[in-house]
Fold this sequence. Notes:
By secondary structure, the chain is of the alpha+beta class.
Amino acid sequence: MENEQPEQPAQAEQLTFVESVLEFIEQLVSPDWPGLIALVPLLFIGLIGLFLLLMALQWRRAARLNSSRVPRRLAAGAPPPGVHLPGPSRWPFVLPIGVAMVLFGLVLPVRDEAGQVVVPLNLPLLGIGLAVTLLAIGGWLIDAMREWRAQAYGAQAVAGVLAPGASPTGHLAAGAVGHAARPAVATEPPVGVHMPGPSPWPFFAPLGVALILFGLILSWALVLGGLLLAVIAAAGWYREASHEYRSTEQVGHAVPVTRDPERAWPRRLVPVFLAILGVSLIVALAPLGLQWLGGLAPPADGEQPPAVPEVAEIVARSAVSYETDTLVVPCCRDFELIFHNEHDGVPHDVDISDDAGGTTLFDGEIITGPDEITYSVPALDEGDYYFFCSVHPNMNGTVQSRPEEGGPAPEGGEED
């Protein structure tokens, strides 16, 4: 017996190791899917950071090969006559930062210490993102208009190098009188100089892409409108790029269709853009507007209260909304709520609070579809409440707690 006693700690240590291995294998076979899905945004951020790091390394590796292609700065500090050479603009890099902050402000709600959603939107992040976005759009527009004026009047005339009313060739434009005269603009750039005409499509294309991104969060109508805008912008951009390519193949440099910014502006397509944008916003916001108007209307005489079903049920099939936006439940007693999650592989739940962003009265268990669960909800006083999915706060609606026919009356009331 004395010889067997020293072996017991070794056996216990071996057992602990085996249990640790089994627990690790169990995590691989049946992982915590809701926890892993919550880490997906962090995974995407890490992949994007890794991609940018690899791009920086490749750029550094190829810097010496490309150094000979970078033209040296002129001693005079100005480009040759007739050459359109705008300076670098910072706004194409600032604008995506603002848009990203706006998107994060929409999808990252403010939570309390317990992890409950306090405010559906991250208002500080959303406000800063909107400010940065508007600042970048304004700065980009100023830079773009400066380039357009340089092409319309001559780069050196805008910079103040030429005398007022003089053309790059030293002649006055037809009808030029003093400072009000426009300098003549050459119809072709110098041989070997690539100077395409102004194009509005780099400014219209991001509108369609931004509408698609907002639509993925808010409404399918915005996605459809954004797709139409993006297709129109891509077609216009491709058409102008094809013209530049063909003209370069034929004469050795790009020959613009026009150098007049007013003629280059797509007057016919701008109303189409605005119409698509307006219709998309109207369709996306119409349900909210109708719901708000319906709440303002007084109840009709003799209007019957909503019927309380025997069993309260709710269904989720997407991450956009539940299958219903109104849930009627019995008041003043505990009740059961059956939740059908038919969204394959996606976690959802049903929480109830006194108002949007208010105090949580019931916190339902999260289940990953396809699955079903029956919640036991504590009694609610008669009135209207707010239900939502804690994983996707944009999924929400109204809970109407009403007396059952012949059931108990609310506290302080009288039975008929």
